[in-house]
């Protein structure tokens, strides 16, 4: 006999993106259930390196990942070699120019540290990051059904119903308002909805061997952590993880079925070292497909795609895979919370796809505009848009532009896809820039004031009355922060510099920390002006004249 559970949201898939989405929903007190067919994280580390933006979101959750991983500020360095012990040839740069000193090295410094963000990225593998999100989600009230597999799914105009079964043949039926599909690149949910995908496509099949070998750690001393092995028609890829594990990737599917002895022989071949069997510990092995696809839809009725279900991207030194999916979940969570609270009309959810899909498409194209993967364009029907150039890493990380009906002021199609925060200077549709402030004698980032609800920022106290009036008219939870009074800039002028408003102007920041609207100088009827803007971007249910 099955048990029926009623909740607000059901998440299918409990890998990194599903877990992050669960944590973001729990942070906003949205009742939900996560269903994952596996009992825990996969043995393979998979993604390595979580970007500064992801760590900003962990900071929001009060889940400190930085203490558990080596911080990094630049993409990992890669070099082509015949073998580790053989000839080292040329460094393979991620961007248009060399990235300078080694990255991912403890104690490394970043000239932008504390300038673009209050945190830095972490060189932590996915199997280490997943428990952080899982633990925080459960602490905040999430229910996770691990070891349960979805067996059916249906939706109506008013909700969704999912049936799931455990490994011991117990069955549950989950009735929810919305479903979030975080079920991976193959996504049975996406396929059942007949959502198509486009992109460079399937690139090649990979066989992967995860191992430990203390005898080759010396090759990391020059600051390289990724090695392209090329010699005499043989190709492989070797990457190190901060905890001492290595992953050897080859391009023969049969290599995934090699015996331990054969795998160790292959490791000797790529390292060029005369290693004993006892020097090498095989941890795991398997196979996967290297591919690049963007789903043509991110939403079908009450079902939303996140992560690899929405966009499958190859591993990159820019962190475009898991990190992009984590941000999907963050964007969707606040919108679902606002709709379920009754503050926002369900049409707010229709802004998810217009914001997140173009961003993923830009990242897809950036992958193939860069040297690491450019060669795959030769065998694909996919063509980069004319004039595509490599975009600066800080612009990709902190300055991709949202265009949707939850933003006022980003409609101009001549605006670039991405710029640095300094170049944007408060452009609506971009992440609200970091700068340091003092509040009650405590040093904080201005970003620490966001993420709970809508925030109005201004140097002019008159906007306090406008904020109250707008909140009352729209039925939207807001707060007001006066720069120079409620908080003090550590460096005077940063608010005007980074947010592009004068002393009487104001900025409206969304619950996800993105700028929804700004007014360069204060109008006479500020309350009406702010209420009109808030009503539009929040899709307010209650609208009073």
UniProtKB/TrEMBL annotation:
Region (Disordered): 88-118
Cofactor(s) in the UniProt record: FAD
InterPro entries, alphabetized: FAD-bd (IPR002938), FAD/NAD-bd_sf (IPR036188), RIFMO-like (IPR050641)
Pfam families assigned to the protein according to its UniProt record, in alphabetical order: FAD_binding_3 (PF01494), Rng_hyd_C (PF21274)
Stretches that traverse the bilayer: 7-27
Keywords: FAD, Flavoprotein, Membrane, Oxidoreductase, Transmembrane, Transmembrane helix
FAD-binding domain: residues covered: 6-360
GO molecular function, one term: FAD binding
Metal-binding recorded as keyword: no
Protein name as annotated: FAD-binding domain-containing protein
Organism: Gomphillus americanus
């Amino acid at each position: 006999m099955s048990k029926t559970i009623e909740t607000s949201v059901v998440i299918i898939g409990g890998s990194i993106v599903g877990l992050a989405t669960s944590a973001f929903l729990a942070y906003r007190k949205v009742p939900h259930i996560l269903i994952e067919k596996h009992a825990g994280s996969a043995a393979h580390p998979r993604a390595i390196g979580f970007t500064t933006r992801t760590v900003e979101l962990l900071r929001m959750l009060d889940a400190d990942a930085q203490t558990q991983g080596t911080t990094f500020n630049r993409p990992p360095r890669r070099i082509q070699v015949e073998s580790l012990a053989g000839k080292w040839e040329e460094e393979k740069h991620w961007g248009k120019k060399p990235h300078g000193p080694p990255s991912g090295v403890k104690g490394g410094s970043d000239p932008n540290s504390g300038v673009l963000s209050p945190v830095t990225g972490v060189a932590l593998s996915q199997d280490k990051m997943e428990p952080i999100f899982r633990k925080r989600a459960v602490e905040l009230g999430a229910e996770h059904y691990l070891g349960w597999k979805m067996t059916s799914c249906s939706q109506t105009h008013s909700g969704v119903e999912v049936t799931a079964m455990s490994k011991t043949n117990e069955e549950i039926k989950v009735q929810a308002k919305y479903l979030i599909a975080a079920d991976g690149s193959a996504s049975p949910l996406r396929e059942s909805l007949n959502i198509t995908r486009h992109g460079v496509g399937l690139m090649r099949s990979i066989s992967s061997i995860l191992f430990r070998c203390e005898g080759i750690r010396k090759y990391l001393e020059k600051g390289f952590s990724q090695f392209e092995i090329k010699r005499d028609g043989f190709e492989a890829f070797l990457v190190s993880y901060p905890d001492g594990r290595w992953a050897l990737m080859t391009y023969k599917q049969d290599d995934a079925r090699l015996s331990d002895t054969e795998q160790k022989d292959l490791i000797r071949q790529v390292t060029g070292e005369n290693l004993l069997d006892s020097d090498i510990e095989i941890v795991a092995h398997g196979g996967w497909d290297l591919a690049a696809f963007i789903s043509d839809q991110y939403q079908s009725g009450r079902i939303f795609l996140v992560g690899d279900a929405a966009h499958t991207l190859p591993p990159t030194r820019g962190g475009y895979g898991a990190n992009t999916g984590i941000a999907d979940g963050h964007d969707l969570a606040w919108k679902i919370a606002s709709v379920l609270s009754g503050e926002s009309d369900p049409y707010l959810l229709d802004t998810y796809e217009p914001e997140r899909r173009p961003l993923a498409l830009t990242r897809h194209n950036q992958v193939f505009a860069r040297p690491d993967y450019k060669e795959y364009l030769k065998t694909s029907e996919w063509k980069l848009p004319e004039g595509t150039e490599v975009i600066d890493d800080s612009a990709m990380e902190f300055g991709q532009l949202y265009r949707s009906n939850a933003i006022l002021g980003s409609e101009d199609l001549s605006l670039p896809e991405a710029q640095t925060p300094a170049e944007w200077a408060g452009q609506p549709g971009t992440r609200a820039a970091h700068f340091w402030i003092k509040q009650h004698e405590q040093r904080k980032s201005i970003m620490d004031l966001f993420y709970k609800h809508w925030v109005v920022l201004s140097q002019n106290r008159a906007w306090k009355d406008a904020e109250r009036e707008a909140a009352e008219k729209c039925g939207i939870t807001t707060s007001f922060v006066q720069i120079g009074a409620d908080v003090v800039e550590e460096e005077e002028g940063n608010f005007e510099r980074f947010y592009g408003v004068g002393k009487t102007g104001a900025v409206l920041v969304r619950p996800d920390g993105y700028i929804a609207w700004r007014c360069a100088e204060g109008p006479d009827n500020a309350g009406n002006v702010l209420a009109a803007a808030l009503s539009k971007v929040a899709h307010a249910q209650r609208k009073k004249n």
